[in-house]
Design goal:
Elements: E1 11-19, H1 23-35, E2 41-45, E3 59-60, H2 63-68, E4 81-82, E5 85-91, E6 96-98, E7 114-115, H3 118-131, E8 135-138, E9 142-148, E10 151-157, E11 160-162, E12 168-173, E13 176-185, H4 192-200, E14 212-221, E15 231-237, E16 246-252, E17 257-265, H5 275-282, H6 286-292, E18 296-306, E19 317-318, E20 321-323, H7 339-358, H8 367-375, H9 377-383, H10 388-395, H11 397-414, H12 454-459, E21 473-475, H13 480-489, H14 493-496, E22 502-507, E23 510-515, H15 525-529, E24 535-537
Helix pairs in contact: 1-3, 1-7, 7-8, 10-11
C-alpha cells in the first residue's frame, strides 16, 4: 500500500473548495461568485463530466432555482415540462385504488413543479458557474481530507494510477492538495468524506441516525399514444406489501420518454428481499405494463436516498467547512424531493462564507449557516413532514397515510406538529433480521421485455472502471462475509446491491465472497445496509463509475 507520509503533493490555495458537482455544490459556487466575483472558488466532481453521476426522479420544486437565478427561464435552463396531471395510487397485485388529491396537504401538491433531468440541470448550472469564473474540474475524485488538527484544511484530489495492491503504478499521479479557507462537502448521499467528518467530529451526536432508501430508475421511450407530457404518478403497496416500505414514481418527461423509478426503504428486515427484483416485478403490474409494452428501456441507474429528515440532520458546520444538501440529508420523504433544499443549502452556505471572508475570518465554524438552515426554508419544508417516515417504519403504510397525513395537515396550517417528533431508532443495518427467521422470496425470472436482470441493466448505466486499480469497496475484515454474514444473514449483499457487485461463489468446494467492483454504480447501498457494517465505500479514481446521459 502507498505510504501517505512519503507522498509529496503540490498544493493550491483557494477561498472556497467545493467537493461535488450536484445541485448543492453548483448553487454554492454560483452564489459565491454572485456575491463577490473576486473570490477564488474551485469545484471538484468525481464523474467524467458534470451530471455523469447525477440520478434523481425528478420533479423539481423550482423555489431554489428561483432564488439562485431568478431569470432561469430566459437563460434557457432545461426546465420545461410543467406538471399537468398528478396521480397517487395504492396498488394491489392486479389493480389499485386511486387516492384523490383533495385530502392531500397543500405541501404535497405538484402544481408549479417541473419534470426534469437533474443531470441536465446540473450541466446547465455548471455553465452558469464557469461563466462567473468558477474553476470546475470534472474527473477529479476527492479521495482524502487534509486535516489541520480537527479543522478541515482541504482535500486531496486527482490521485490516479495506483496498482490493484495500492502501490504506485508506472503512470501514477499523486494528485494535489486543494486548500480552502472553507471547504464545502456536497458529495451527495453517504459521501465518503462526509462520513469521515461526521464520525471524527461527532456531528450526529444528539441527533437521530440517518435513514436511507434505495432508488432505482429506468428511462423508457414509450409509444406516442401512451405518452402524456407532464403527467406524474406515484404508487405505494404492491409488490412490496409488508416486506418493506417504499413505492414508485412514473414521470412523463419529454420526447415520449417516461422516467420510471422504484424506491425501497433500507430498514427492511427480511435479508432475502431483493430490491432490484421488486422493481422489475412492479413493471408487470397491469397499469405499468400497459404503459411500457411496445416501448424500450434506454437507461438505468441506482442511488441511495437520505430519508431521516429533520431529526437526522447532523450539525452542519464544522471547523473549516460545511455539509450541503444530501451530504447532510435534506430530502423531504413524502414529497420525494430534495433538489430544492440542496440548492437552498448551497445558497445559505455561500452567503455565510462570503460574510465570514469579508470579515477576515477563515477556517472556523460557519454557525450562521447552521442557523439559516435550521430556521429558514429548509427547516419549514422538513419539519412539517418529520413524522411520516418513522410512523411508516413502526406502524406500516396505512397508519402512515392517516396519522402522517393528519400531522402534515396540522403542521401546514399552524406550523406545529401535533405528534411531536418521533424517533427513528435503529440504523438500517441494525434493522436487518436473521435469515433463520425468514423464508426466501421466490422472484419471477425477468422476461427481457419489461423486466431485466441486473447485469443487463447495468450495461444501460454506461458504467466503467479501470480494472487495474485498487478495489474501491473495502472490507474492514475480509473474513466476515463468509464467516458471519453468510450463515447469519444469507449474505444479503448478493441481493441488496442493484448492480450485481457482490457474489458468493464456490471455489474448491468452499464459498468465497467476490467483489465485481467494475459494476458499481456508486449507489452506496452496501456501505449503508451491510448488517456487519464491514463494507466501506470509497471513491475510485476520477472519472470512473456510471456515465448517466439524461438522468
Amino acid at each position: 500500500m502507498t505510504d501517505e507520509t512519503q507522498i509529496e503533493r503540490e498544493s493550491m490555495e483557494y477561498d472556497i473548495v467545493i467537493v461535488g458537482g450536484g445541485p448543492a455544490g453548483l448553487s454554492a459556487a454560483i452564489r459565491l461568485k454572485q456575491i463577490d466575483p473576486e473570490l477564488e472558488v474551485v469545484l471538484l466532481e468525481k464523474g467524467s463530466e458534470i451530471g455523469a453521476h447525477i440520478l434523481s426522479g425528478a420533479v423539481l420544486d423550482p423555489c431554489g432555482l428561483d432564488r439562485l437565478i431568478p431569470d432561469w427561464k430566459e437563460r434557457g435552463a432545461p426546465v420545461n415540462t410543467q406538471v399537468v396531471d398528478d396521480n397517487f395510487y395504492v396498488l394491489g397485485q392486479s389493480g389499485g385504488i386511486r387516492v384523490p388529491n383533495w385530502p392531500m396537504p397543500p405541501l404535497m401538491k405538484n402544481h408549479g413543479n417541473y419534470v426534469v433531468s437533474m443531470g441536465n440541470v446540473c450541466r446547465w448550472l455548471a455553465e452558469q458557474a464557469e461563466e462567473l469564473g468558477v474553476e470546475v474540474f470534472p474527473g477529479m475524485a476527492a479521495s482524502q481530507i487534509v486535516w489541520d488538527g480537527d479543522r478541515v484544511k482541504g482535500v486531496v484530489a486527482g490521485e490516479m494510477g495506483l496498482n490493484p495492491d495500492g502501490t504506485p503504478g508506472p503512470q501514477y499521479e499523486p494528485g494535489m492538495e486543494l486548500h480552502g479557507k472553507y471547504v464545502f462537502i456536497a458529495e451527495g448521499v453517504r459521501g465518503s468524506l462526509a462520513k469521515q467528518i461526521i464520525g471524527r467530529l461527532n456531528l450526529s451526536q444528539g441527533h437521530e441516525p440517518q435513514k436511507y432508501g434505495l432508488g432505482m430508475k429506468e428511462i423508457w421511450e414509450v409509444r406516442p399514444e401512451k405518452f402524456r407530457k407532464g403527467r406524474i404518478v406515484h404508487t405505494m403497496g404492491w409488490p412490496l406489501g409488508k416486506n418493506a416500505g417504499g413505492g414508485s414514481f412514473i414521470y412523463h418527461f419529454e420526447d415520449n420518454q417516461v422516467l420510471v423509478g422504484f424506491v425501497v426503504h433500507l430498514n427492511y428486515e427480511n435479508p432475502y428481499l431483493y430490491p432490484h427484483a421488486e422493481f422489475q416485478r412492479f413493471k408487470h403490474h397491469p397499469m405499468v405494463a400497459d404503459l411500457l409494452e411496445g416501448g424500450k428501456r434506454v437507461a438505468y441507474g441506482a442511488r441511495a436516498i437520505t430519508e431521516g429528515g429533520w431529526q437526522s440532520l447532523p450539525q452542519l458546520s464544522f471547523p473549516g467547512g460545511v455539509l450541503l444538501g444530501c451530504s447532510a440529508g435534506m430530502v423531504n420523504v413524502p414529497r420525494i424531493k430534495g433538489n430544492h433544499n440542496a440548492m437552498i443549502s448551497g445558497i445559505e452556505a455561500a452567503e455565510a462564507a462570503a460574510a465570514a471572508l469579508k470579515d477576515g475570518r477563515a477556517g472556523d465554524r460557519l454557525e450562521d449557516y447552521d442557523a439559516a438552515v435550521r430556521s429558514g426554508a429548509v427547516a419549514t419544508d422538513l419539519k412539517r413532514v418529520r413524522n411520516v417516515k418513522p410512523i411508516w417504519s413502526r406502524l406500516g403504510l396505512w397508519p402512515s397515510l392517516v396519522l402522517g397525513g393528519l400531522d402534515m395537515w396540522v403542521a401546514n396550517l399552524t406550523g406545529w406538529n401535533p405528534l411531536g417528533t418521533w424517533k427513528h431508532g435503529k440504523t438500517d443495518a441494525q434493522a436487518t433480521g436473521k435469515a433463520a427467521d425468514f423464508q426466501p422470496i421466490d422472484y419471477p425470472k425477468p422476461d427481457g421485455k419489461l423486466s431485466f436482470d441486473r447485469l443487463t441493466n447495468v450495461a444501460f448505466s454506461f458504467t466503467n472502471h479501470e480494472e487495474n486499480q485498487p478495489c474501491h469497496l473495502k472490507l474492514k475484515d475480509p473474513s466476515i462475509p463468509i464467516a458471519v454474514n453468510l450463515p447469519e444473514y444469507a449474505e444479503p449483499a448478493q441481493r441488496y446491491c442493484p448492480a450485481g457487485v457482490y457474489e458468493v461463489v464456490e471455489q474448491d468446494g468452499e464459498p468465497r465472497f467476490q467483489i465485481n467492483f467494475q459494476n458499481c454504480v456508486h449507489c452506496k447501498t452496501c456501505d449503508i445496509k451491510d448488517p456487519s457494517q464491514n463494507i466501506v465505500w470509497t471513491v475510485p479514481q476520477g472519472g470512473d463509475g456510471p456515465n448517466y446521459p439524461n438522468m
